[in-house]
Amino acid sequence: MRTKDPFAASAYTGDIYESLRENDKDWLDSLKNNRYSTSQLETYAKCPYKYFAERILNLEQIAEPVEEVEALEMGSILHNILYDFYARLKNKNIILFNCSQDELKYAEDLLFSIAEKKVEDANFKSPLSFYDREKILGINNNRRSSILYEFLKAERERKDGFVPAFLEVGFGFPDNYEIPESVRNIKVKDIAVRGKIDRIDINNEERAFKVIDYKLGGRKPTDEDLRTGISLQLPLYMFAAKELIKAQLKKDFEPEGADIYSLRYREKYFGRLPVKSLSSDKSSAEILIESCLDSIAEYVQSISTGKFHLTQLKDRENKVCRFCSFRAICRIEETG
User: Fold this and answer.
1) Is 70 exceeded by the pLDDT of residue 198?
2) 3-state SS string over the chain?
3) Is the pTM of this model over 0.85?
């Protein structure tokens, strides 16, 4: 059956619910009560079998540390630097857009002093890490050749009327009493979700907001991935941001868009990358947000009823299979 019709509903093709014992069915059903992150849900969206292997069977690949680990460290350091920087600017009531030369100099010195401390704490040792150090602080400590100086310049020159208002905001974490109760226990169609938004910028005059997501690689989700429910992060973050702003400011703000902020160390790839389908107009954004919420409910329903078939994506090789750790055991090639 698996060879004749690899996506027919049967235990051999990943539809396992009916073949389970009653206590196992009860356990699967209880997964509706879990708290889900976008990375978990996006894994299921791309390949339910991969989700099954990773999250149900808890299989892990044993591998040597690679450059990806160092890239994650680099991304974490930059996130921490930018969070501390903007938090301290807010305390001083300094807005970078169109700021004075004195304020700009203060901001530059503050940014690099924070960065130097973070880099020192990270204890860079390897040649690659030394290269990353120069990306952050500048070649031979020349600030103007650094990622951070480019960031400072770009933030001062932006002209959209939005200013950073919320930084590193978590939602769906019940024990985080720094955020409103409605955001701590946020749900999507009765599904508990969680995440952390890098930054929310607001425009008070227009009662609008933008979600900003820092990325070291600068890759944007495609319109197709947003429409088909493969990319959930930004629409979900926009939904959560609206709830957060309403709880904190006691006002309704509408989503104006979402930007990937590329921190890649190349001028061509550095800076804000608006996600067009979430930024073109408010009605389009709201449609995609609602579609995202529907997809989340659908995925959790499928997880709790034991549907873990192989990926059916048209471009599965590029979207999920190429670097998948479970490719050797799923036998996706047999499906043609």
Assistant:
1) yes
2) CCCCCCCCCCHHHCECHHHCCHHHHHHHHHHHHCEEEHHHHHHHHHCHHHHHHHHHCCCCCCCCCCHHHHHHHHHHHHHHHHHHHHHHHHHCCCCCCCCCHHHHHHHHHHHHHHHHHHHHHHCCCCHHHHHHHHHHHCHHHCHHHCHHHHHHHHHHHCCCCCEEEEEEEEECCCCCCCCCHHHHCCEECCEEEEEEEEEEEEECCCCEEEEEEEECCCCCCCHHHHHCCCCCHHHHHHHHHHHHHHHHHCCCCEEEEEEEEECCCCHHHCEEEECHHHHCCHHHHHHHHHHHHHHHHHHHHHHHCCECCCCCCCCHHHHHHCCCCCHHHHCHHHHC
3) yes
